[in-house]
Amino acid sequence: MKISILLPYKENYSKNYAGAVSIFVNGVNKKSKFKKDIKVYGNTDYLNYLSNNYINIPYKKKIFKSSSKVYVKNFINIESKRKSDLIEIHNRPNYLTFFKKDNKRKIVFYFHNDPLTMNGSKSISERKFILNFCDKIIFNSEWTKKRFFIGLSNFYFNSEKVDIIYQSTNKTSVNLKNKKKMIMFVGKLNKSKGFDLFGKAVVKILKEFKDWKVLIYGDEPREQITFKHERLIQHGYQSNDKILDSFKLSSIAIACSRWEEPFGRSSLEASSRGCAVIVSNKGGLPETITDGIILKKLNPTEIYKNIKELIINKHKLKRIQKDSLKNFYLDNKYSSKKIDNYREELFNKKINVNKKNLRILHITNLNERHNGRLFYNTGRRINNGLLQLGHTVQTLSDRDTISRERKITDFTGAKSLNKKLLEIISNFKPNLIIFGHADQIQNETLTHIRSFYPSIKLCQWFLDKMDDFNWSINRNRFSKKFDFIDASFCTTHPLAIRSFKKHRVYYIPNPVDKSFENLNIYKKKFFKYDLFFALSHGVHRGSLKSGKIDAREILLNKLVNLNHEIKFHIFGIENKQPIWAENFKNELANCKMALNLSQGLALKFYSSDRLAQLMGNGILTFIDIKTKLNKLFSNNEVVFYKNLKDLSLKLNKYKNDHKLRNKIAKNGMLKYQKYMNSKIVAKYLIEKTYEFNSKKKFFWENK
Question: Could you read off the pLDDT of 461-472 as tens digits, one per residue?
């Protein structure tokens, strides 16, 4: 993996006057597993570079041309020859626009300052561009990250594209017994850094405590703030190594910035060397210490009071010093590992998950608005299976959401649904999203999920009948998500749909669930009716549609006319309204046998979910042999018929043969409950989506 790091223009990657970004980059690179493949690019007038892998970009100032533009274009020219796999750009968001045409390399951007003050990230549109363009965005503190997302959706805030990697330093052993009575300040000697507040406080301390000294490292040619005392020693600018050595000997360090400092390197380094650190509550400064003092007020009196407390209370001073050392974790090895991890993730699409405990978002129609009429549905069965497997499941009922959210500005409710989905993802952070139909989830939303949460797996299941001809509308609904989905599942066998051959499409049976299908009808001895069948003109409609004729009605009327001795119990024809939920189960329990009959021509393995309700409840079920379900069930588990005459003969046979009828019904129920229950179907969805290698084949595979 070739990695190129582009520093800000005029960032001093030199031991003579190294900037904070340079120190960080150099420190983590030394610990990186990719250090031999990294090149650092920058521009500085200083020599004595921090590392040998640094390349100073040749630069000649051109009149009327932006220095940054020339600098970046020179880098791009160099890159055209090196051809890196990954480019990491630090702290200049306006550079990113020059890389728009480069789609061959991964781009990572690092924010070291407040994004809202930097050219290229001030506006919402600029920050959206960064989010969409970059493969990864790194912030140096939680504070910096929060600033970037002001005015943006929470969906982006928790995106996998985004991470916080704190600046770090090298770790070293520190003997607290060697600590001297010294107080340190490191940074620009200006009011923004609070140097004036610090100076007033420590002069007072030095007058009161004669055995203490103050060390000051830094300069500021643009602002003259002077404090004089014989034990206040100003060292000016010094190398980072010398500052770290001084921190090892000092007892107290102060970082009292007035401005919202994005991170604060001096307080980090002081903590790493066992100083008792006092920081102001500004920007990311509180994030730089694990143990220390955060000032409640920012003024000389408050600083003086806290320093004095540490000097007088030696136990408190030693405790903070000891805890700072013990709890310090932001060393270069730690940050470098985080950086190397995202580098590998960008090029390695293999996702490691705990398959026994997934966070799953299941989006399907749970029919809440129908007040229990459609409670017994496949979505709930699959949901039950996921829960039985031990997974954490969040549900989103898509059609209920649409129904509730319709308004003038969102006529269909789809905008609200898609927004809600993205917000759930941001908060719940699922490992897997399962779509059950969910037609109103837009491809734009799926694109967002793929881009900002690449580790999330996506799959869909689909119940409605489909083929390349008569049921092509359903096929088109199903295939709409193919470009975004890891795996798709349907109750029509994929071999019956020629246009699915190029996609990962799998057959699933309609699942049965013991908590739903619990009648055990085969145990009953007395029945009011012989044959049960229930038809509807659409589950969401609930009642028959005036003037509509279902082709199944013709077959049923012929069947009734041929069998006057059979007591039929048929719903959904001749103005006998459909039945649902417990009413369906109650009426089913009054019958000896049931007919499973789906619309249209038979397709391999296709059946509506009525098959699970019939066989799962232990009633003898009759099925058209042209469905080829005889590859899943034997004649000892189901009664298959070839045509209307054959069906009539078999109805009359099993009507009176109670022992054989109940035996077959029981066998069918036991097989369905054992091999095609909701837990097994849910497991199949997961294993195929993640491409887990299952040693044991599922019952219906390769049939």
Answer: 999 998 877 788
